[in-house]
Amino acid sequence: MRVLLSTYGSRGDVEPMAGLAVRLRALGAEVVMCAPPDFAELLDGLGVPLVPVGRSVRAMTKGAVTGTAPMPPKTLPERAAELVALTYDAVLPAAEGCDVLVATGLLPSAGAVRSVAEKLGIPYAFVSYFPSYLPSPHHPPLAWPGRPLPPDVTDNRALWELNAQTLNELFGGAVNTHRASIGLPRVDNVRDHVLSDRPLLAADATLSPWLKPADLDVVQTGAWIRPDERPLPEDLEVFLDAGAPPVHVGFGSIPLRDAQDVSRAAIEAVRAQGRRVLVGRGWADLTLIDDQDDCFAVGEVNQQVLFGRVAAVVHHGGAGTTTTAARAGAPQVVVPQLADQPYWAGRVAELGIGAAHDGPTPTFESLSAALKTALAPETGARAAAVAAKVRTDGATVAAKLLIDEYIR
């Protein structure tokens, strides 16, 4: 049994695939992953071979946010065409002898994986980490940058039709031009082609349910969580033991334009609540603002353990961070930046396990208000109750499904 997993995106796109890879290997499957070169160390530590795709995602996203992009800017369709070609060229040789290809991440990249699957006659599966990437009458689609949803259209099915048109305009040319170059027929609806007729939804049903009835046959497996057994660094343990649980502030693999201003606003807002501060540097490069002993900075650590020892988590709202904090019973303040993050901010607020920050730019005033909600006793009680319902077997469910339905 041989499975190829493919994604092009940030740590939040790669980590769930790593969780699936671990469970597939435990069930006897051989796994190879196609992903950006940023994650070579992560995958090497798991013993999962990496076929690198494209350039460093961290360098490109940081360059785009800070205005220091390492290459001349291109249009979105031009970047899509480049990504389709790069992904196809990497995945095609790696897919030889595979029983199933599983794709997620940016739509052009997943489109290239589906082309490889067709070319080699291998089954293909698409996975989303949140429901609103998948068409449904119960929710609207995500709004693409520069293409807001029309305010006069309120019917979700109509909005999804517009979404299909938008994605055809942005990515249809890139996908179809490449398909023609390798002898594959044109597709009229690039979104539905990439998502397939039966996509997987790797999200926890308590935090992010798929509502039925729906037109699409979605299989919700639960979130794909990779168990992390690493101990916390000794100096972090010393800080945690030195006082009351701190508030963790971090934006994961999301760069920020004004990291120093955000660091200052966050630290001062947490201190104003009488709490200590734990700063996660991440791709945003958050920093300490002074040398007071109530504040400590960390790099890459085991968040599954850490979030169980903090008073609250301030973060960007990625699917993985939201699920990890919810599973740990930590109240949350979600400061959404892009993509699925506004969705997760809304879910945290709806569930009563934290606060949704209004907009992507936190200030002392806005964070202070959100922290008052997150640190309230009733929010902590609700977060603890929801934590008991979050399942951790999603990757196992998905691995067994892939083996039973696509391989055996």
TrEMBL record:
Residues 3-134 form the Glycosyltransferase family 28 N-terminal domain. Keywords: Transferase. InterPro entries: EryCIII-like_C, Glycosyltransferase_28, GlycoTrans_28_N, UDP_glucos_trans. GO terms for molecular function: hexosyltransferase activity; UDP-glycosyltransferase activity. The keyword Transferase applies. Residues 298-393 form the Erythromycin biosynthesis protein CIII-like C-terminal domain. GO terms for biological process: carbohydrate metabolic process; vancomycin biosynthetic process. The keyword Transferase applies. Pfam families: EryCIII-like_C, Glyco_transf_28. This is Glycosyltransferase.
